[in-house]
């Protein structure tokens, strides 16, 4: 049969950061906040001794791109399944002289499987067809071809997506598949960088980049345990189980504080959405302590329970006690009825309207785009309608105009 990947002249390499922002080594140490430990599915990594080079310069609100590493235990399992030695050295080079990707190697098998190959993610249909091509068992070949059939989406949806079946798991379940190692490396997706909102302020945390991350771990419909590549790597490093050098680069964003610090800000960020807002808080607190006129700073934070995942509670309480910060926290599970940040916003309708309308304040929303960001925006429209006295259509336009003027900024994800 025709070879599904024969026309591909070269391997796909790990995408490099922009030329002006090469990866920067950063050291990490265990979380300093007990409530952020991986026991509660959070880990707050506060890197220290980051090399102070131009590529590491950032503003509060920027993102850090992190190149993760695969779990060494899974790397060993995959190498055995592919029939290669972990410390074997190889090189992969493009056949076509016009190929845009440089040579890969010389590298060890361990290096390429650890740092370059995403074998924990969901395999694409085209990759499943390639695996089917290398199956010697006809029943296994038919099954993989069924999963990858574009005209029948349900098998792929049910077997791969719904059960979150990784490439490694597919290889384990189809033992007759004997894909050559070089073809595997050429065809597997690259291990892409993961992006996080930076949770520190460079003028306060000099030479440091802080990251606040959920440790992803869940049980799939098939009963398997799934672990997020990057967050699990963080967790292992925080426990001292792996190296503490992380290749990173900074990605600039438009999610920045107003140039005039005297303007008030409304910060809305439940869960790890508090990450960039923490950087904002430290920056504005620094300016205030240095004698700069800083406007009102109001934070709406949300989490499940005060005793479970109130991230950065000690420092937030300290800022509140100083009179610098006004804070409202929604503990969604600490009472019979669920309370979210939008409910707290509506409770403080008069304050919110005064800041967003009378004081010309700026609004920052960070977190879940699926529901939270929509609910927060709707709450603000409701306040413009009920407290501001604007008809509903004008209330919606008022909020939309804030977005257009970049006085209402979102840093959200699905």
Write up this protein.
With 414 residues, the chain is an alpha/beta fold. Helices cover 34% and strands 18% of the residues. It has 14 helices and 15 strands. The strands form five sheets. A five-stranded parallel beta sheet has the order 13-12-11-14-15, sandwiched between helices. It has a four-stranded antiparallel beta sheet with strand order 1-10-3-6, with no helix packed on it. Strands 2-7 form a two-stranded antiparallel sheet. Strand 12, helix 10 and strand 13 form a beta-alpha-beta unit. The longest helix is centred in the C-terminal third of the chain and has 16 residues, at 274-289.
Shape designation: elongated
Average pLDDT value? 85
Supply Rg: 25 Å
- Strand order across the largest sheet: 13-12-11-14-15
**Low-pLDDT residue intervals, each spanning 5 or more residues:** 1-43, 45-54
Instruction: Profile the largest sheet.
Output: 5 strands, parallel
Work out the helicity level: 25-40%
> End-to-end span in angstroms?
40 Å
Derived structural class: alpha/beta
SS elements, strand count: 15
Helices, by number, come to 14
What percent of residues are in strands? 15-25%
What is the N-to-C succession of helices and strands? EEEHEEHHHHHHEEEEHEEHEHEHHEHHE
């Amino acid at each position: 049969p025709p070879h599904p990947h024969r026309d591909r002249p070269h391997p796909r390499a790990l995408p490099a950061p922009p030329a002006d922002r090469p990866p920067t080594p950063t050291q990490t140490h265990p979380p300093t906040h007990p409530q952020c430990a991986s026991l509660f599915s959070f880990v707050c990594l506060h890197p220290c001794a980051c090399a102070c080079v131009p590529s590491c310069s950032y503003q509060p609100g920027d993102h850090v791109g992190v190149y993760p590493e695969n779990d060494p235990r899974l790397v060993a399992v995959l190498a055995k399944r592919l029939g290669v030695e972990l410390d074997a050295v190889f090189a992969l080079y493009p056949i076509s002289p016009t190929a845009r990707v440089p040579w890969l190697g010389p590298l060890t098998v361990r290096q390429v499987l650890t740092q370059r190959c995403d074998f924990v993610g969901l395999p694409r249909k085209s990759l499943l067809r390639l695996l089917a091509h290398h199956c010697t068992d006809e029943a296994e070949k038919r099954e993989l071809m069924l999963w990858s059939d574009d005209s029948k989406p349900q098998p792929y949806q049910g077997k791969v997506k719904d059960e979150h079946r990784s490439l490694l798991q597919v290889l384990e379940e189809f033992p007759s598949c004997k894909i050559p190692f070089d073809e595997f490396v050429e065809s597997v997706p690259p291990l892409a960088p993961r992006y996080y909102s930076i949770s520190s302020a460079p003028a306060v945390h000099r030479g440091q980049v802080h990251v606040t991350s959920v440790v992803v771990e869940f049980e799939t419909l098939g009963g398997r345990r799934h672990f997020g590549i990057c967050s699990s790597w963080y967790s292992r490093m925080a426990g001292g189980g792996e190296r503490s050098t992380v290749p990173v680069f900074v990605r600039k964003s438009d999610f920045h504080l107003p140039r005039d610090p005297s303007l008030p800000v409304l910060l809305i960020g439940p869960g790890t959405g508090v990450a960039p807002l923490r950087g904002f808080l430290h920056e504005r607190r620094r300016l205030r302590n240095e004698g700069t006129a800083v406007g009102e700073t109001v934070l709406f934070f949300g989490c499940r329970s005060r005793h479970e995942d109130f991230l950065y509670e000690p420092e937030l309480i300290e800022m509140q006690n100083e009179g610098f910060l006004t804070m409202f926290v929604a503990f969604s599970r600490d009472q019979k009825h669920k309370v979210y940040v939008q409910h707290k916003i509506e409770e403080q309708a008069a304050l919110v309207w005064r800041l967003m309308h009378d004081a010309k304040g700026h609004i920052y929303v960070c977190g879940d785009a699926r529901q939270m960001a929509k609910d927060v925006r709707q709450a603000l429209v409701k306040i413009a309608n009920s407290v501001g006295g604007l008809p509903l259509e004008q209330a919606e336009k008022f909020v939309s105009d804030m977005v257009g003027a970049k006085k209402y900024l979102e840093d959200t994800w699905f």
